[in-house]
Each structure stands twice: as C-alpha cells, then as structure tokens.
Amino acid sequence: MARFVYVNGQYRRYHEAGVHVEDRGFQFGDAVYEVIEVAGGGLVDAERHLARLERSLNELQIEAPMSRQALLLVIAETVRRNRVREGLVYMQVSRGAAKRDFLFSGKSLEPTLVCLARPLSRASREASADKGISVISLPDIRWGRCDIKTVMLLPAALAKEEALKAGASEAWLVDRDGFVTEGASSNAWIVNAQGELQTRSLSNDLLPGVTRRTLFDVAQSLGFQVKEAAFTIADAKNAREAFNTSASGTVMPVVKIDGKNVSDGLPGTISRKLREVFHEHAALYPLGYGFHRPK
Ligand code: PMP
After folding, report:
1. CA 88 – CA 117 distance, rounded (Å)
2. How far is the centre of ligand 1, averaged over its atoms, from the C-alpha of 243 (Å)?
3. Strands (DSSP E) along the chain, which ranges?
4. d(C-alpha 97, C-alpha 24), whole Å
C-alpha cells in the first residue's frame, strides 16, 4: 500500500490525496506517465525514463512540471517516504485543470504532477518468470501515436481483461497487416530461427520501451544479434523463444501464445539468461536513502 503520494508540491496521505475534478487527465486522458523500477538501492534506467517523459510532454506540448533533477528528488523522496526497497514508481503529468474545453492553447495551465511508489516483491515476480506467461493475440485498436506514453489506456485495459478471461496475463496486439506491434503493456520479442533477438522497429505504432532499449546493450554484451523487424503471431508460435520486456516485468518469458506452446512450453534459455543479467547492464540512479520514519 502506498502511504504517501506526491501531488503538486505536497506529500499527502494516500487516502487524502487527490487532484481537481476538472483535471484534463481525468476528462480527456490528457496526461502522460512513466513507471520506473526500484531495485538494488536505486532507480533502474531513470535517465532513460525521464528522457522519454520529456519527449512525451514535448510531443503533446505539455509544460514540464519541473526539471529532470528536481523530478529525481521528488521520486527519491516518494520512494523514501513509502520505504520501498523493491518495487515501482508511478509518475503522471497531466496538462492541468481547467473548465472543460477541448482547446488548451493560451490557457496558462499548470501541469498536475503525481508520484506514487509501491513495493513489489521480487519473489512474486521471479515466480512468474520461472513459469513463464501465456499471451493471447488481439487486434491493435489503439490510436496512431502509441510512441507517446499517454494515460489513454482503455484499449490496453480491455485487452488485459480479455487475456485474463482466456487464462493469459498479457495480450500481444496485432496490426492490420498481421504483424505484432507490442504487448498491451510490454514490448514483444522472439528468438527467431537464426537465433537473433527480434523485435519490431520503432515507429508511431509502439512505445519505445526503456527495457527494450537497455536489452540492446545486454544483447550486445552477450554477443546476441538484435534484428529490428516485425513478426507475425505465426512467426512467434514457431519461434525458438518468446518474451516481453517492461520496467515492471524486466524480461518475461512467454511460453504460450493463443493456447499453443512456444517450443517445449518452458521459459527459453536465452530469455532466462537475459533476465538474469539485465540489472548488471541497466543504469542505476542511487537513492541513498536511510529509512527513517516519515513525519
Ligand atoms: N509498450 C507498452 C504499451 C507499455 O505500456 C510498456 C510499459 N509501460 C512497454 C511497452 C514497456 O516499456 P518499458 O520497458 O519502458 O516499461
């Protein structure tokens, strides 16, 4: 349970924290977010996440609520107040609150910044990675700027509900030409017949995942080739291995797609290796917290 939440300059108790009823994030989905992993005493790939946040804000012409350095201080303090040693930070920036109106230019809106930190046990995450997860495929019904990390997550929420009903935990979204764009909340990868790590190249159709980016570094240091090319569900079903990447799941082996086993239906050796060494390659922004009791 997150006990303290940062909202616009104040650390509020979780049950008392709130934003304005006319916040544009609430009315228009006019907001962007980031999720950063807390592990090993620091924030994993913080600079890359904050760079992506800045890009998302820029693309939507939302004013940055504060500098990157100030944001890091807010995050660190939120983590400290919630005594999170392993878990996730969630941060959201909306364009701000104003009388409901589609138009936003010339309104001098103050962006709304919310920051939460929650523990997430390593053991539970490792347990799902040890088993691997099942995914289902669904049509990608999202908008044309999936490269921006907006809170317009209804298609992803519906897709995950569909996955749950089918006994799976993630949905791989498929474009009109039959190629996988990405997972509902992860990037999709396969190990193809050539032994290359294959993932779709970046475009407006998918999120430039930070874990995806760092995995390029991991792959290089382990001597794996990465091929940036789209693949179909049939390709994935016949692949040597399949996996997802995300800040919350790191490298998550995919063992079943639409009910069909990938290879022998067990997490692949390459996926497991990539997961095992991931944090040795990811940058860590040290939090340096002493966990004293918050006032
Ligand atoms: N794609 C989508 C649609 C996502 O929601 C996420 C997770 N936020 C990702 C990919 C993975 O991105 P990252 O590795 O930066 O968490």
Report:
1. 6
2. 13
3. 4-7, 10-13, 31-39, 42-44, 87-94, 112-119, 133-139, 170-174, 180-183, 187-191, 197-199, 226-228, 241-246, 250-257, 260-261, 284-286
4. 6
Residues with a known catalytic role? 149
Domain boundaries, the chain: 4-120, 125-281
Rounded distance from Cα 52 to ligand 1 centre (Å) = 11
pLDDT tens for 223-266 read: 999 999 999 999 999 999 999 999 999 999 999 999 999 999 99
Q: Does domain 4-120 have CATH number 3.90.1640.10?
A: no
Tell which CATH architecture fits domain 125-281.
Alpha-Beta Barrel (3.20)
pLDDT tens profile 17-48: 999 999 999 999 999 999 999 998 899 999 99
